């Protein structure tokens, strides 16, 4: 597999940028010492739940598998997800409540798993809208957990850094799996979809 080929440097660029995000925040001059735990707390939030982690990775996985080529369309789903995750987190920290947050998070796993299985190709706008719609509920859940944080900006920066890192991981894995036997990415998608169905059944 030639994931890091000369003709496809976008995934390498994504991984480099996401790896640099936490370092850039930590190196920012004038940042108070207590801001670093806030950044770390925000960074760990998307990693602390398997449901959030699986959804973010699978969005990147689907985007890479469905893309015709490396380019802006490859990033539509992940960017839409990250943007609306941030919006949802801010709303959650402000105390905004929406119904069916947990069922929507579970549904996002079911849908994203099916997207990986089918490699359903959408336009950039449609992919961003679909991913972003589910991300709003993920963001609300994270924001409610971060409510009251005195260093909210750093917590949100950490959360967004982890989100981008997870998307980049999914993109990298998906790009590598484009040349793998077709059953392999389908098995990964099926696992995410079954996980989502299980969560929905428990919430019913």
Draw up the topology in text.
Blueprint: H1 10-26, H2 35-44, H3 50-66, H4 76-93, H5 101-118, H6 124-146, H7 152-177, H8 183-203
Question: What can you see in these coordinates?
Answer:
Residues 1-11 and 13-33 have low confidence and may be disordered. The protein has helices at residues 10-26, 35-44, 50-66, 76-93, 101-118, 124-146, 152-177, 183-203. It is mainly alpha-helical and 204 residues long. It has a domain at 35-101 and 119-181. Helix content is 74%, strand content 0%. The chain is globular. It is built from 8 helices and no strands. Helix 1 packs antiparallel against helix 7. The N and C termini lie far apart (43 Å).
Quick structural summary:
This protein has 204 residues and is an all-alpha fold.
Q: What order do the SSEs take from the amino end to the carboxyl end, as H and E?
A: HHHHHHHH
Q: Give the radius of gyration.
A: 17 Å
Low-confidence stretches: 1-11, 13-33
* Sheet with most strands: none
Approximate helicity band: over 70%
- Count of DSSP E strands? 0
* Number of discrete helical segments: 8
Look at the structure and give the mean pLDDT: 83
């Amino acid at each position: 597999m030639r994931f890091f080929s000369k003709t496809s440097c976008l995934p390498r660029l994504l991984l480099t940028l996401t790896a640099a995000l936490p370092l850039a925040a930590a190196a920012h001059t004038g940042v108070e010492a207590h801001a670093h735990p806030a950044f770390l707390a925000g960074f760990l939030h998307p990693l602390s739940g398997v449901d959030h982690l699986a959804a973010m990775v699978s969005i990147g996985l689907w985007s890479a598998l469905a893309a015709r080529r490396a380019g802006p369309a490859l990033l539509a789903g992940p960017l839409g997800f990250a943007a609306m995750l941030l919006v949802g987190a801010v709303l959650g920290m402000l105390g905004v409540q929406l119904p069916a947050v947990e069922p929507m998070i579970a549904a996002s796993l079911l849908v994203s798993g099916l997207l990986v299985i089918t490699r359903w190709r959408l336009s950039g706008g449609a992919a961003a809208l679909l991913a972003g719609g589910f991300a709003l509920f993920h963001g609300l859940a994270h924001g409610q957990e971060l409510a009251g944080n005195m260093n909210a900006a750093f917590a949100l920066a950490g959360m967004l850094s982890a989100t981008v890192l997870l998307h980049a991981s999914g993109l990298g894995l998906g790009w590598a799996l484009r040349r793998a036997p077709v059953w392999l990415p389908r098995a990964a998608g099926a696992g995410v979809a079954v996980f989502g169905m299980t969560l929905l059944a428990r919430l019913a």
